[in-house]
Amino acid sequence: MSSAVLRKDIVNLLVFIERLKNEEDQIALDMDQIEKLKLELTFMSTFLQLSYSNLDGFNAKMSREAQQVDDMVQTVFYQSGDDLLVKYDMDHVVPHVLENIKSYISSHHYPESSATMTEAQLVELLDALLVNLRDLPKCCAELILPLMTQYELLRDICGNLRDFLVLKVNDEADDSDEIYDSDETAEPHETDDSDEILYQVNSMIVHLFLKIIPVELEVMHICSTYLKASKSAEVGRFIKHLIEASPGILREYLILLQGHMVAVLTASTSARNIHIIIEFLLIILTDVPKEHFSGFLTRVGALTMEISVLVHNLEDSSRNEENMNETNCASLDLLESIELMKEDLKHVFLKTPADSSQLCFPTSDGPLFMTLLLKKLNDLLNSNVCSVALIKKEIGLVKEDLEFIRSIFGNVEQELNRDLWTRVLDVAYEAEHAIKSILVRDHGLLQLIFLLPAAVEKIKRIKKEVLEKISKNKGLIAVNSLNKLVERKSSTAGQIIVGFKEETEWIIRKLTSEPGKEDVISLIGMPGLGKTTLAYKIYNDISVVAHFDVRAWCTVDQERNVKKLLQKIYNQVVGLKKRFSEDDIDDDVADKLRKQLFGKSRKKDVALHGKRHSDPLNLRLLRPEESWELLEKRVFGEEHCPDELKDVGQKIARTCDGLPLVLDLIGGVIARKEKKEASWLEVLNNLNSFIFKDEEEVMKVVQLSYDHLPDRLKPCLIYLASYPKDEDIEISELKALWSAEGLVELIEMMSVEEVLEVYVDELISSSLVITFSERGWGQSCKIHDLVHDFCSIKARKENLFDFTNLSAPLSSSDLMPRGMTIHYDHPDENVVLFNPEKKNPYVKHLLSLKVIVEDGKDTRLSYSCHLRHLRLLKRLELRNIRLTDSLLNEIGMLFHLRCLNIWTETEALPPSFSNLCNLETLVVENWGSTMVVSPSIWSLAKLRRVSIDSCTFFDWDDDGEPKVLEEDWKLENLRILDKFRFSCLDDTEDIFKRFPNLRSLTCEISGPWDCSEEIYFPRLDVLNELEEVSAWFQCPKCSHAHQWDFHFPLSLKELDLKGFDLSSDSLSGIARLPNLQILHLRNAIIEGKEWNMEEVTFENLRSLKLESVSFSEWQVGEESFFLLEELQIRWCYELMEIPDSFGDIASLKSIYLVGNRQLVDSAIKVKQYVAEMTGEDKLEVKLNAVNLRSYDQSNLERIQRKVSI
Q1: What is the pLDDT of residues 531-580, one digit of tens each?
Q2: Phi, psi of 119 (to 5 degrees)
């Protein structure tokens, strides 16, 4: 049986099926099944023509296809209820075709010579293939539609090759070279996972592209050389069509080739050079006018062919050093061609734009724009990104000249020379727009050839004009120098409360004098009166704390979410017993309590709505003497104002009209100024025009305080509004945000951490940022509602960041801010952010993107979603979204990323991530098994924080042996390493030496399968900068205690150990750490159940937390914990009492018990002893979040009965 005869049989069957579709009997047929049967038969007919080639798995594939066809025939013709085959005299034909198919498969053998098919046969094959490509989307839409762009291009390429071969067969291309297409075929592996099938289809299309386009390039070369002079009309039409299709085909090929290089090739000079030339060609292919492309086709196509060859050479790992040097030289030659092509584009192919000065600075805050622009330019120069290399010289010139101009233009000079300052902003914006357009390929060609060079020249001319008009010495400011640090007053910042003594006493009486009576006491008044501060003071007052068994603190905004509010309250009330999610809150409960929750409001009607017994308290203004007291404390702390400043200071205080917020902010302004009368008079003159009768006037003071901040701090303050109102913001999280957004200005001789500390201190000293606790572990801050409003308005006005959700989808015409935060119930692939086909050019200009999907939803982005077009992103956070492998590879092409926070399910860090050379923060929630991060991670030299679920640096070869790490692999900038997993048998010393500046380590140590093996704790004393360690030992098979030999560095400040057996020696060794401030022991067994500390001293320990620690005897000496402030004991059931000697620790502030009812008596005894010795009831004792009072034994008994443990 020959394939030709079998194909003829199949064609006859297809004709019969088509005939059936047009007959009345079609009503009895399943038309979907008919279409699928047609496609299978068409595919089989095409596949038969590949029998000329020795293809792997040909017979197996044919057997599967034959079985599918047989099953479909049975379904369509034999189960329809009518004998259609008999009716149309096909009852013998169809079984005969099926039998012939099986016979062909069983008798088929490959030609001995594996002869290549003839050109005529290849034309026939391509014809059949084009039919398949046309019909495939009809039945596989769910697989093809997400990849339609690449699919259609693939179809166009096959059509081009078919047309070219027709010309050759017809002798229209006599002088052409011989071209034989080596077809490759593949199919998805068997799987039920639709995402996995889609990924395989996507991979196959990419693979076919990379294989078939080099053949297309050969055709393009022949057409632009050998066939150029042909007079044949058919050849002319073909070349015209080829030219029209070529830009899209070449562009897609170069994009895929770039992604392939990122995923497969290791970083090298040659690879970098190739990336640069690809960037240049992509700019041309994206923007070159169609009427000029035909003249450029030969050069672009030839360069693309050379690139294709060089990439192939780099992939060939067997090449020797000499060949690799040749490749490097060839890549350098390609770079030299860029300048030649730029000249030709400028003088031959493109026209100079008539006027490029149409762009005007679009926002209002010029200094803020200049600050962010200069930081951005500096980041680009230090980024080592290939696209930047095309314009690195121009970026350097723009940065240098704008820095000089900005250093001369102080606030006074901006006012005196408004027109010149406006021109500076316009040309700076023009330069920024040109740079960004080039980097994102958004009409970048004209920008590259004409507009950016023109902007550079404009800036030079303006610089010269600035020098002529403004004296170099007048108004010169040190933009890049950090101000002298203000004296740290963090412990009082935000906690200075003056006045309202009578009001405080009245409210406390109302709250505590009538037990059991439900009441709502509302505080009303204009913004800035201190309503929240007063409420918080009362909430923490000792008499209120003592009176109420359970308290909860929450804040509510104008746009309140009642369920979230109730969730906060319930989670505080129930403590550790049970945590509620928002979904746990019943709507009925929310309705019943809605009217009782809004106790603090500036609006009287809201307050009256919640009234029960008490009238709302209309909070008064501060009296003059109270205003001066608050201002003096804010500026001088515990000291007093010098006599020469008292008069002007008291005038400033009176001008603030008794508003605490205004006094706070003005105090922050003058605290930063020289302690001279002239400086204070300047502030007084500014205030004299303000009349504080409404929110708008208070906003003017916020603006004044903002204006007095150094330029470098202004964006840092504004970004506080990216957090919800009234939310406590962890200082560490805030620093990470500033760093990720590129807001940190690197200063010589200072680390990033030190600069960030300065930023926090300066904002706190300005009183724009409030802290409620001492600086240190877990410190948080917040900003006043009005400051938040000011920053939010400023952010929108200056186009810095915005928020949206599916109820307010982005329009394709929206002007995009620098950053976006999107809350989704479910990501929509049609949203313009994820779809490069949507025509919003501003999407490409995004610098920051944070997408949050509702907790608990397992979400994946579809294959129609892409990230590769977001080329300028510095920060990318995708929460609760599991990313596909293709999207992970696209992330590897976002070379500007500084912060990456993603969710995924993979066993290894993708190789493409090794290209993220600017990455500083990498956070991965990995839902799979342990993730191997070597070798990709070692290329990320700027990494400062790594947090990856169950990550390991150890990888194994095929023989199960650990791979040896290269000697020079180090991450010298790494400060934080979270969730590192390793075995207690691993040699970790070699790993940790590679992080010489590590400061924080969280790790999980797994036990051995054989419990008799000796185990080791890692030698951490090689890390001289290490300050925090949290280690968890897991060994399910271990039934006996292990002896641990700990080796911690002397720099350690915080230690958290979970699951370790502890001996007296090991605990004594920990006590000898001179800088240890926090010790947390969990799920531990102390050897002999006795902890004797009578001869042991913790020199600096402030906090001791014991959780599920198994020990019964505890001896503590007088000097064991002489600086201890906090003792927490949770679920230590074997311990019967707290040692009396804790009463002698003068620094002790609190004892917190959870699940330890047996320790209450001894805790109260210690509390009573402290009260007797000091005359103050200053030691706080809590049981399950309930305060215990030493002076009321009956109350203690009531609490013990009430609290379930």
Answers
A1: 888 888 888 777 777 677 677 777 766 556 666 677 677 666 655 444 55
A2: -65, -40
CA distance linking residue 402 with residue 404, whole number of Å: 5
Q: Count the alpha carbons within 13 Å of 1127 in the hemisphere toward its beta carbon.
A: 22
Amino acid at 880: N
Q: Measure CA of the first residue to CA of the last residue in the chain; give whole Å.
A: 84
* Under 8 Å between Cβ of 927 and 859: no
Q: Of 499, 535, 726, 501, which Cα lies nearest the Cα of 627?
A: 499
What angle (nearest 5°) sits at the alpha carbon of residue 46, between those of residues 43 and 51? 125
Contact status, residue 959 vs residue 988, Cβ threshold 8 Å: no
pLDDT digits (tens, 9 = 90+) for 435-473: 999 999 888 899 999 999 999 999 999 999 988 887 554
What is the distance between the alpha carbons of residues 994 and 339, in angstroms, rounded to a whole number? 42
For the domain covering 1053-1189, report its CATH number: 3.80.10
Rounded Cα distance, 864 and 838, in Å: 12
Q: Residues 900-904: contacts with CB within 8 Å, 24+ apart? A: 900/876, 900/924, 901/876, 901/877, 902/876, 902/877, 902/878, 903/878, 903/879, 903/927, 904/928
Nearest partner of 922 among 981, 860, 876, judged by Cα:
876
pLDDT 10s digits, 851-875: 887 665 667 776 677 888 899 999 9
Q: How far apart are CA 555 and CA 537, in angstroms?
A: 14
Inter-axis angle of helices 643-655 and 660-671, nearest 10: 140
> Among 452, 388, 429, which residue's Cα sits nearest to residue 871?
388
CA distance 876 to 851: 8
Q: What is the pTM of this model?
A: 0.80
- Locate tokens 């359970």: which residue? 550
1113 forms beta bridges with: 1090
Cβ-contact 257, 307 below 8 angstroms: yes
Q: Which residue has the tokens 């189960």?
A: 79
Q: How many CA atoms are closer than 13 Å to the CA of 104, on its beta-carbon side?
A: 27
User: Over 697-763, what HEC string results?
Assistant: HHHHHHHHHHHCCCHHHHHHHHHHHHCCCCCCEEHHHHHHHHHHCCCCCCCCCCCHHHHHHHHHHHH
CATH 1.10.10.10 corresponds to the domain 709-796: yes
The per-residue DSSP string of 539-561 comes to HT-HHHHHH-S--------SS--
DSSP 897-915: -SEEEEEE--SB--GGGGG
Q: What is the pLDDT of residues 721-746, one digit of tens each?
A: 998 887 888 898 899 999 999 899 88
